[in-house]
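Why predict the complex rather than its parts? Because the way molecules touch one another can change local conformation, and only a joint prediction can capture that. The input here totals 609 residues.
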Amino acid sequence: MNNTAIARALTGIADLLEIRGENPFKVRAYRRATRTVEGLTRPLAAMVDAGADLTTLPGIGRDIARVITELVQTGESGRLSDLEREIPATLGDLMRLNGIGPRRARQLHDALRIETLADLRNALERGDVERIPGFGPKTAETIRQSLSRPRGPVRFRLADVEPIVDDMVAWLRAAPGIERLEPAGSYRRRAETVGDIDLLAICSAPGPVVDRFTSYEGVSRVVARGSTRASVVLASGMQVDLRIVERESYGAALHYFTGNKAHNIAVRALGVSRGLRISEYGVFRVTSETDADPAAMPAMSHDGTEPAHGDGAGSTGSVQTSGQRIGGETEEDVFRAVGMSYVPPELREDRGEIEAAGRGAIPDLITQNDIRGDLHMHSTWSDGRDSIETMVQGCVERGYEYMAITDHSPAVGVVNGLTPERLERQLREVESVRANYPMIRIFAGMEVDILGDGSLDLPDAYLDRLDIVIASIHSGMRASKQAMTDRILRAIAHPAVDVLAHPTGRLINEREPYEVDLEAVLEAAAAHDVAVELNARPHRLDLCDVHVRRARELGVRIMIDTDAHAVGGLRYMAYGIDQARRGWLARTDVLNTLHLPEFEAWLRRRNRR
DNA sequence: GCCGTTTTCGGCCCGACTGTTTTCAGTCG
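Output of the joint prediction:
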């Protein structure tokens, strides 16, 4: 059983415990364990087989370790089965809908015998739902809409969200009184997909800003609007939340709304242990007097009562907290208060960054300026849209020291792959372009297909003439895990291969990764000194952040390449850098940060293999 | 159920908004 399946089982237990009304902290313990499993870089099955002590993992104690071990060894969990006998597992699905939490899922089941989404739909049609005490017509309508919403991808790819964010930010900046405006949330963490957009603002008058926000032309529906926050849904289905805060709270709010949630909870818990209260309003020292006297808190402002035509003169809401403020204008205030060094947004996933920042051990993450070359791109010789020369110019403009043209091999019919004969001609063109661009080293390379048996789609005599050989899979992706792994391992062992490209074949929101023992692949890559690619194309981003981090742990050399199919694609390097940072990579972990002489020395290692 | 640089027991993040209510529960992030 793989980590994803284990995480799903733990979530199932959490859902059912919650519906059952168990101690919420017990529920939270299972959810925290789920996140730990999801963020784990190693397969739990391998850890169990090796006799590793799972309770050393954060949030996993004796009981949950036992559940995991049982899942690995038997494929089932007695804990989960017991719960499912008592409560239908499908009730967990109901909680995924808007307006339904654990309590209402339970009420629906108890009052109307609802178990599935189909049951719920029928009950809504009969009008039964709104007659349950505490539900009412509006709640029923919220559920109905959530249920009827098209089941498209609930998360959008980062690169698809970026233009929307840019546009909304530009629109909002024109609102009167805007002092500062910045996206937060998973967008700021540069997650590969984004569920909704969070915008954070400081402004002198919230009314007009909220008005401008809700009147953005892409808005299809206003979900909520108050004096300090508002939410809209765009025609694309993307939800956008705007929060308005005071300047003195900006850093605390930015930290809070950047998340992720698990990271926030961990930081706040650290605060509690130091006698601090951390909220989006700031960091406060808890004092017994203010704690004991809620009346000492400032009264609620009246801004929220009539927001539709806000006079714009009100304050941005009063601070709903107590205690002595000790910081909050900057994010650094928050981290400093709990003894942490600054944590870059990309690392805020509660995957060890809290502990690392406590020890001052946050790595110096790679930046785009560290990149010296792009080693994977295509030209009109195969399925690219721009000539070799145009691609070279693009790389020169980006200030690279080196690059590689790597067109496809012939196995993939539709991409016009290069036969040995056409490769000869292409190499001559590369040679002639080189003469005109002495400021950049142009490597002649190829993206060679790994065939079904693990052999390469080009005779060795030709491979040896190339400066760099990238091996990758474009066909036969439904082979068994064993077959796929053997196939890739054989390619990695081939002495001509320098790089394994897009190692899992996944396409975000389009295609699952193929079945492969990635752990074995990464170990082999490290052993043979074959680089593993972090493919920066926004729909690939292959490897994912967790696997990037695992590759680094195993000492694998990582290469970040754009796989550009047109000169415009060279800009995708930025997304590769985002993902690399999320995988904790420093400059020194990435091969194409080497200057040309060192990079060439690495390529020459092939002669020694 | 987990966890400990105050703790092996007694805590566990914090606030806004909505709907259905007459003072708050539930949901959401």
